[in-house]
Each structure stands twice: as structure tokens, then as C-alpha cells.
């Protein structure tokens, strides 16, 4: 049995060698197709990724869902946490009457006090995270929601390029 397999391997190798010598272009094409097919087969793990184009303002803005409610957000790698405006928190049905605004936060607009809470579910495209720590600021204190590091640190990776930002979740 082993001898038969060895003979077949030698014959296949010899035929491949002869084909590569007599038809190098066809062989190169077949070789490339085989490599691509093998590479695609080996890399079949599902990817959860989102690509965000840089806006005209230079910011990466997107629509996220907080507990199923769609809202605009700005990606801010300088923000330790996800930060929501009061209005967004209210729209998402968060328990605003129970919040304690006792956390000092430094924003681009100055210091503000915020309240800690945990988001049941925060999703950006195919990326879904549960129990995400977040902050809520009082009404009128911020204009934009920030997608900060309390979400980004949960991802497998994120990569900034000149014109886009790639977010990759774990498979």
C-alpha cells in the first residue's frame, strides 16, 4: 500500500515538473489558483468587522444601537469610557432617575460631572457587546455621544488609517 502511494506521488510530481517546464504560463496560473483556493479555505473563520470612513470634520462618526435604539456616536480613543448625552440615555430607556452624577470627567468643553451605568447591549454593525460600562452627562453638557475605550478595549483589534477606521471583533 505504501509503495503504491509512493509511486503515485513520484508520478504526480514528475508530471507536474514536466508541465511546469513545457507550459510555464499555464502552470503559474494553476499554481496561483491553487494557492488562492487553499488560502481561502484556511481563512474561513467568520470575521466580525466594521469599517468607518473618516468624515469631512476629520472624525469617525457612526450609528450605534444602545439597547436596540439607534444613535449617532463619535469614536474617541481619548475617552476612557463610552459617554452618552442625557437625551440619548433617555431615548435608550436608561434609568435616569436613579443616576448619581458623582464622577468628574474632563471633556473638550471643560469639566463636567457624570453618572456611571452599565449598558445592557451596545452594537456597532456586526459588533455586539453586552454589559458595557458607560457614563451619562447631565442634559445639555455634551452634543455628541462618545464611543470610548470601554467598548473599544473589548474588540480583537482596531486600526486607524488616513481615511478609515477598522473595528474587528472576536469571532
UniProtKB/TrEMBL annotation:
The keyword Hydrolase applies. It comes from the Bacteria. Pfam families: gag-asp_proteas. GO terms for molecular function: peptidase activity. Keywords: Hydrolase, Protease. InterPro entries: Clan_AA_Asp_peptidase_C (IPR011969), Peptidase_aspartic_dom_sf (IPR021109), Retropepsin-like_bacterial (IPR034122). GO terms for biological process: proteolysis. The keyword GTP-binding does not apply. Coiled coil: none annotated. Its EC number is 3.4.23.-. SUPFAM superfamilies: Acid proteases (SSF50630). This is TIGR02281 family clan AA aspartic protease. The lineage of its organism: Bacteria, Pseudomonadati, Pseudomonadota, Alphaproteobacteria, Hyphomicrobiales.
